[in-house]
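Chain entry —
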Amino acid sequence: MDSLVKSLEDVFRKLPPLPANIVDVLVGITPWIALIFGILGVLGALAGLGILTVFAPLAVVSGARGFGLGYISTIGLGLSSLLMLAAFPGVKARKASGWQLLFWSEVVNVVASLVGLSVGSIIGAIIAFYLLFQIKPRYK
């Protein structure tokens, strides 16, 4: 697992660094972003699972295919959001363990996006990884 972090860190290290004042702002707001999007993501995942469950019989009757991908993507969203919520205390205390939970939250998000074939989410994940590796040195 550390090898994945190290290999991605090597890739993102080659990109231009953000100015120190922007990194400071990101470090300051990251815990609150994790908390807010964690809560919204869990609520969204629960709503998504409910909607998928209601419409699943209609999808089966109409012969819709690929409906299971919606479940996988929604479960991925929920898991990613739970990891964000778990990261909040550590990120707020600027602990490396909090940063790692945010990293794994993003990895789960990428996997769910690949399964759901969401190009927009993959682009968003690349931006998120860039920002995560910019603030990583501030977490001990």
The CA atoms of residues 8 and 14 lie 10 Å apart. The chain has five helices and no strands. The chain has a mean pLDDT of 87. The two ends are 18 Å apart (CA to CA).
